[in-house]
Amino acid sequence: MFATRDSRLLTGRLSSIHNLRLPSAVTPTAPVKPDSEPALISESPARYVVAVRALCEFTAKVGDLDLRFTPSPTAQEGIAGHRTVASRRGADYQAELSLSGDYRELTVRGRADGYDAGRNQLEEVKTYRGELDAMPANHRQLHWAQVKVYGWLLCQRLQLEQVTLALVYFNIVSEQETLIRESFSATTLQQFFEQQCTIFLGWAQQQMAHTQALHKMLGSLKFPHASFRTGQRVLAESVYKAVSTGCCLMAQAPTGIGKTVGTLFPLLKAAPGQQLDKIFFLTAKTPGRRLALDALEVINHSAPELKLRVLELVARDKACEHLDKACNGDSCPLANGFYDRLPAARAAALESPWLNQASVREAALRHQVCPYYLSQELARWADVVIADYNYYFDLSALLFGLGQLNQWRVAVLVDEAHNMVERARQMYSASLDQSQLKALIQTSPEPVKKALQRLDRQWNALHKVQPAAYQAYSAAPEKLIGSLNQCISTIGDHFNEHPQAVDGTLQGFYLEAIGFARIAELFDEHFIFDITRREAGGKRIL
């Protein structure tokens, strides 16, 4: 069975361009905070705004890169958890408290999860599943950094001499709270705040100086060839007008017109006037990335002083140096101490504006960090990013997520856009196979087996009422989706309780189930739910 999002087919060699202002961020483990602040925005040449979360992630992340299989709560579970915590507090409790403060040219803003005026206690709520003791120490350190920054902003606002800070860890399964409290003086919190701001401000000033110099150069950028090809000037003018007016453009151009240069050049020219933060060039295949890199090399060669930062993002299996190792410090040497060495690696990589796969790899290995995750960090600081469609359009797309967090103004160029139809269907479709479920029932431990059996019963109920071998439905079955979500929760708890005994087959089903459930949350009139039955060993299964 699967759910699929429909698409409209556009034929020919197509490029789609749009310019937009992205909304505020949503994180998997925290509720949506309306009107949350951008991570970094220039209000004037000498003023920066940074969100508390972005500030602390830049300054307080230390230790290993650790991607061991410890599934976190979904966004919906995080929202529900925060609401539950707030509902348990008294009348003096203020949820989602907006705070801000200045340090030199920097303005720091954010929303603290809650403040209890009666207790003079500021809370930062974190939802989790499994055993709290299994949480890595560097995660806890990052949480403390966030609440300390909020603590100083609160002390400054209310003229407090001291405040109690509390990390509230909420278990989404048991709904139990674990509070870790500590009292701090305003002086101590101010010192911590200024220390973090000093670290960030030095880097932010360099970044803004780069952007200002780049925009000045782009304003006088000349077309890299002596003349336009037939039809190329019309294409370039159309692109420039589209991005300048903030509208979408669908362009069909024949082979040989020079559409890559003909679209990238006007986007770069429009960047200063439209205050674009990033240009994303998205492709369906590796040759498309190569064409974009070649076009930007031509533009850079025509204006050597430009120093345009161009980043190439590649798939994880193409960038990983140790495919036989897990992404954690105990297994991979490039994950060990990753965040400790990241600042130097980031600075070294950005000494060169040309950040293709080879140059990023060279900088990463020189500083003994993972090339794949270094490239993801560099996406925050590049001017043009060349990547596959999924980096922007997938459910967990890196570039789209960064755009939301930072409220970037971006121009998105989708090359060979006719490929988007099938790719979009793949990204927004999911399927499950009952034969895999039945096999897992035979081998899974309790209570995972019981959860799988409940899901199997709901599946069989659908089987009984469908006479045909194939049938499409306009709605997803609520009982099946409910059992699936319970199954996901049970398997996730099992993995957290037994982190060293992860079964590959069960993990594969778990990830597929999560993907299916996420698509089900999006289900509307653009989706269908269908069931295909087949015969297996004389017995019909879904």
UniProtKB/TrEMBL annotation:
Pfam families: DEAD_2 (PF06733). Keywords: ATP-binding, Hydrolase, Nucleotide-binding. Residues 218-469 form the Helicase ATP-binding domain. GO terms for molecular function: ATP binding; DNA binding; DNA helicase activity; hydrolase activity, acting on acid anhydrides, in phosphorus-containing anhydrides. The keyword Hydrolase applies. InterPro entries: DinG/Rad3-like, Helic_SF1/SF2_ATP-bd_DinG/Rad3, Helicase-like_DEXD_c2, P-loop_NTPase, PDDEXK-like_dom_sf, RAD3-like_helicase_DEAD. SMART domains: DEXDc2. This is Helicase ATP-binding domain-containing protein. It comes from Pseudomonas amygdali pv. photiniae.
